[in-house]
């Protein structure tokens, strides 16, 4: 990523993310408003991930008009690398609790855990007796 | 699962169509104890003390492939019978293993390594208490069963220690 400045990276990432996940007709937020930008930037700063994705971003940043059609052309040239980029955007977008709430999706059970229905606690007696409780 | 939600202008529409309306079936099978599948010492990779790292050598046998294909076919039948509009099939996942067996428990010392209490048929004060004493693969993750076996065998050793550890 040496050839792209940080600010430029974020601008490109925002544009790419909004093409991959644009705002929806039912009020779904676009990806650029989520935590995805920071998430992807961190990924790109991880040495193992820099080269492949960095080259892909360099390729995309050289595109004159960044449109869905242009991205699909980039995708056709290197489907595995582009699929990885898409997976990262999805992970970042749907991993953002604010996005999950705005989409009306059920959140993760952590940290409270799943609600347990009452059960026969006698079943635990042998286990508890081993620990002296 | 088998086909990612498309990116682009149709993303939200397709996501809404799928979310909460999917069911996943995973096919698990029990490999035969094939000699080619084994754990050996790595000839190159070592830890910080120079001790060779374990190396897992595994390949799908024809028997395993046939079992997996059979399972996928039945799963598709099941999904369609349940009214599925679309059935997506993922490629085989290589990274999911439970290493069990090879020191199976049993009453017959000719066909098993340890007794029903994990006690070696050949060395009376040797107990094996881990996944290696499984006779077949379980239907799910083996940790709970291994823990239950450990508690059961530990209780047995405790109750019979005067006779076992002569």
Short description:
The complex is a heterodimer of chains A (133) and B (166). With 133 residues, chain A is an all-alpha fold.
Detail the topology: elements first, then pairings:
The complex is a heterodimer of chains A (133) and B (166).
Chain A: H1 6-20, H2 36-44, H3 47-61, H4 68-77, H5 79-94, H6 97-102, H7 125-130
Helix pairs in contact in A: 1-2, 2-5, 4-5
Chain B: H1 11-18, E1 38-46, E2 52-57, H2 62-81, H3 143-159, H4 161-164
Antiparallel strand pairs in B: 1-2
Structural features, described:
- The complex is a heterodimer of chains A (133) and B (166).
- By secondary structure, chain A is mainly α.
- Chain A has one domain (6-108).
- Chain A has seven helices and no strands.
- Chain A has helices at residues 6-20, 36-44, 47-61, 68-77, 79-94, 97-102, 125-130.
- In chain A, helix 1 crosses helix 2 (36-44), helix 2 packs across helix 5 (79-94) and helix 4 packs across helix 5 (79-94).
- Chain A is elongated and about 70 Å long.
- With 166 residues, chain B is an alpha+beta fold.
- Chain B folds into two domains: 11-81, no CATH class; 98-166, no CATH class.
- Chain B contains four helices and two strands.
- In chain B, strands 1-2 form a two-stranded antiparallel ribbon.
- Chain B is elongated and about 75 Å long.
- The model of chain B has no long low-confidence stretch (mean pLDDT 91).
- Classes of the chains: A mainly alpha (133), B alpha+beta (166).
- The interface between A and B is medium-sized, with 19 and 11 residues.
Descriptors for this entry?
heterodimer; A: 133 residues; 7 helices; B: 166 residues; alpha+beta; two-stranded antiparallel ribbon; 30% helix; elongated
